[in-house]
Amino acid sequence: MVTVFERRAMWFESEFEIDMNWGKSRAYTVDYPTYNKLMNRANVVQETDQKEEYSKDGKYLLVDSFCEIEEFDRVSEIASIIRPNILVILSIICFVTDEPLTTFDFFSSFSNIVNNPGGVSLDHETKLTRDDNDNSSALRELLEAMNRLSPDKQRLIFSLLDRWRKASYLKVESEESFLYEDEAILACFHILELLGEQYAINIKVDIDQKVRTFASEVLEDIFFIQNNQIHGDLVKLLHSTLDAYRTVKPNILRMMQELQLLQPKSKALIERFLHHRNAIAHGRVNLYEDKVIYPLKPFFSHMKDIYEDIETVRIVSARAIAAYLGTSLWETEWNDVIDSELPPYEQVQAFNRNRIYQGLSWQELEEGQNDHINVAVLIHYYRKGTLKLHPFAQALGKYIREVQLSENNAMLVLYVATILADCTEQSIADSARNLLIKLKDSQFRERFDMRDVVKELSYQGKEPLWLKQFLIERATRRKSK
């Protein structure tokens, strides 16, 4: 066997400085003079085409690796041997820096035979810093957690981190082109599915225990039957019935529960993205739409919610991985996601059913004084179609009559008034229409475009008839002058 060394380099635009190793590879950032010195090609056997350096002012990420190859192998064989380890390292770096690196980012490399294998060393001090913030402990925490895993669990984590890096890469590539949004969502949700499968056995055990207990209680306490055959038949029947409900969803929710990530908001979030995942994975009979709105996309999309954000499910999947490993990584971002999530629709139903809005002022409705249910939340569920016009009007009728226009709430009032202008309760409709007329001529009109609101609501199947006619008549009068 022959020991071979390889060094790869990429331009690293991140603000992070990093030094770490995994397996027989070390990744570390250096400045240009150090890069130029370390990429010295004395005694080089195999070298890639050297591109012009990107900058003499920035940072470079170097990855040093070594491995053993057969006597008859070419030195370049090291590239295929170390590739799995390189992908793991790039995934770890992506997970701790949020920089979706790929092997295509390497622009220079060299490899050579090591004459003294005993002298090969990857000595380093694990480091992860950004400006004046030292995050080295987070990196060490992750690496130590991964090192404690069994080989099978390590392979699982390698797969999850790789999926997450790919999702992050696809998200970045889609920020302007919208090309890979569906694929990014699938990659993130695949992570949740794989993690959920780790807890499927727990669900199976719980079901079996509860089914057997239930069967015994029914047969013995109600029918006074103590017959093992009948008990076994009933258990089988119950299992076959419940098996239809053992889908992806309970696995993921059980995983979230055991990782202490499950709460009403996170449950609603998972259910929402499960719907998106199913629409993408199983497809729709017809993707064609005869109406589209901005931002204009290059293809028809499976996901129709224009307000959905891939970043949400990306953070959820990252936090799930970190929690599974027992680390605190992505905890801050996770908390931000949960804080920004709207209250689940069940809370909105209770808000309307109990007429809580009757005791709130228009200011309190805007602020969400009760369970964070505010005007924006009600608009959201109306646009989705889960909240119908009548309960929407009941909840915000008082608001539209009493609200005082300001620079801060002009857009909010515009949406509410546009929707309620078509209300069947005349007093509410009149108040809404008067507000729309006032908004059109107000000092805040530069902050919004009523035409955009008409197009958006029409796209969502909620065509605002009164406002549309109002704008048509205004435009007609303007042209006739």
Strand content: 5-15%
What is the overall shape? globular
Overall tally of structural domains: 3
Query: In which range does the helix fraction lie?
Result: 55-70%
User: The biggest beta sheet, please?
Assistant: 8 strands, antiparallel
Cα Rg = 30 Å
Count of extended strands: 8
Structural class: alpha+beta
How do the strands of the widest beta sheet line up side by side? 4-6-1-5-3-2-7-8
What is the H/E order? EEEHEEHEEEHHHHHHHHHHHHHHHHH
DSSP summary: helix tally: 19
First and last CA, distance: 91 Å
Given as residue ranges, the uncertain stretches (5+ residues, pLDDT < 50) are: 43-47
> How much is the average pLDDT?
87
SSE topology:
Layout: E1 2-12, E2 16-22, E3 25-31, H1 32-38, E4 46-47, E5 59-69, H2 78-97, E6 106-113, E7 127-130, E8 133-134, H3 136-147, H4 151-177, H5 181-197, H6 200-222, H7 228-242, H8 248-258, H9 264-282, H10 310-325, H11 331-340, H12 345-353, H13 362-367, H14 375-384, H15 389-402, H16 410-420, H17 426-440, H18 450-459, H19 465-480
Antiparallel strand pairs: 1-5, 1-6, 2-3, 2-7, 3-5, 4-6, 7-8
